[in-house]
Design goal:
This protein has helices at residues 2-15, 18-36, 56-68, 104-114, 141-150, 155-164, 179-182, 184-209, 212-216, 223-250, 256-278, 284-306, 320-331, 337-365, and strands spanning 46-53, 74-81, 84-92, 96-101, 117-123, 129-134. The protein is of the alpha/beta class and 368 residues long. Strand 2 and strand 3 (84-92) form a beta hairpin. The longest helix has 29 residues, at 337-365. The chain is elongated, with a radius of gyration of 28 Å. The two termini are 29 Å apart.
């Protein structure tokens, strides 16, 4: 009952603070972005620059091949690179915009200035086509290997082999997330959990500045009850902000019991981490650098989430990595519930350890 009373008092005090409304407001902003700024399906159009260093007969042959593939709309246009304007012919498909240019220099300059792939097609003395590519450095090894192999084998033979391969679906009920749904896990992890670390630290510094912690040092209440009441306030805001983001987008498609469990356990971890950081500094300004570094580190797995080809082993030890994956498993139809439960158990165990350390630290620094 004493803990419940402390929790009610903390709720009242928190609602009078600006920090209490940051997380809720941030969740509303995220929801607006998801609803109106992020489409369900994003059409990625690749821009390519090509110069065909061929005879008029060779160029006509390639254009005839394009027409056989249903590409017969070639428009005259202009494209700029720096202060130079180049004449080009534009071929537009569902996947790409291909600019046919008049020189290799134009391909090189446009590729460098606009950070898009470029290619030069020429013919050697034996009548074989040669391909020279201008890449940007971010291409995967798989794409580079494909480019190396593509022009050294018979394309028709390769397509026949692809079509003759038997493909069996292991899971027929797998439904991938659309772009809007796929954006929820990292946004949810940041707004519902990582922001909790920052806000918890802010609460502690605010209490320290207003003398609440020094006054608490002379009361009969235990330190752990004071800390738990703070944690419960953050857990409440984490759950509310998480549901604000998830419910309008996902509806009743997901397991909300698992969602609430993960929001509570990850929020518990983030808030205890914020409590612990608050014991090492006297005000927000002094701690800002450290808190900012922690947030940057915890955001790194978001890069691996959006760039699956970049997934180093070391990034998997960052706590936000299993947090992101677990949120994604909840979003997926027939996601791995066991993984979510194990992740929640891990965050619970880590939170208990952090809370014990924080409790000891507060006993030593409560009146400082």
């Amino acid at each position: 009952m004493k803990l419940l009373s402390s929790f009610k008092k903390e709720i009242i005090l928190a609602t009078r603070s600006f920090y209490f409304y940051i997380e809720i407001g941030f969740a509303v902003i995220i929801l607006i972005v998801l609803l109106f700024a992020i489409p369900e399906h994003t059409n990625m159009v690749q821009t390519e620059y090509i110069y065909m260093n061929l005879s008029a007969q060779g160029e006509q042959y390639i254009e005839n091949e394009l027409q056989k593939q249903g590409i017969d709309d070639i428009q005259a246009t202009e494209i700029e690179a720096g202060d130079v304007t180049y004449n080009a012919r534009l071929i537009t498909t569902d996947e790409s915009e291909i600019y046919l240019l008049d020189s290799e220099n134009a391909v090189r300059e446009l590729s460098e200035q606009n950070m898009n792939i470029g290619a030069v097609i020429s013919m050697d003395d034996s009548g074989e086509l040669q391909y020279k590519y201008y890449l940007q450095g971010y291409e995967s090894d798989r794409l580079k290997n494909l480019m190396s192999v593509l022009h050294n084998v018979n394309t028709q033979d390769m397509m026949d082999k692809f079509e003759s391969q038997e493909v069996r679906s292991i899971s027929t009920d797998y439904v991938p997330l659309n772009d809007k749904q796929n954006a929820i896990p990292p946004l949810l992890a940041f707004s519902g959990s990582l922001m909790g670390m920052f806000i918890m630290a802010a609460f502690i510094f605010l209490d320290r500045e207003e003398g609440v912690i020094k006054a608490y040092a002379i009361t009969a209440s235990s330190v752990s009850r004071y800390l738990l009441s703070k944690v419960f306030v953050l857990l409440l805001t984490s759950v509310v902000s998480g549901l604000i983001v998830v419910v309008p987008i996902m509806g009743f498609q997901i397991n909300y019991a698992l969602m609430l469990l993960l929001l509570i356990t990850t929020g518990f971890f983030a808030s205890t981490l914020g409590l612990l950081l608050g014991t090492f500094f006297s005000d927000m300004m002094k701690s800002f650098g450290v808190v900012f570094i922690f947030i940057i580190i915890l955001l790194l797995p978001s890069l691996a989430y959006f760039i699956p080809s970049w997934d180093p082993v070391w990034i998997k030890i960052i706590p936000s990595y299993p947090m992101l994956q677990s949120f994604k498993e909840i979003m997926l139809k027939n996601g791995d519930a066991v993984y979510v439960l194990l992740t929640s158990a891990g965050f619970t165990a880590g939170s208990i350890i952090l809370f014990a350390i924080t409790n000891i630290r507060f006993r030593k620094t409560l009146s400082v």
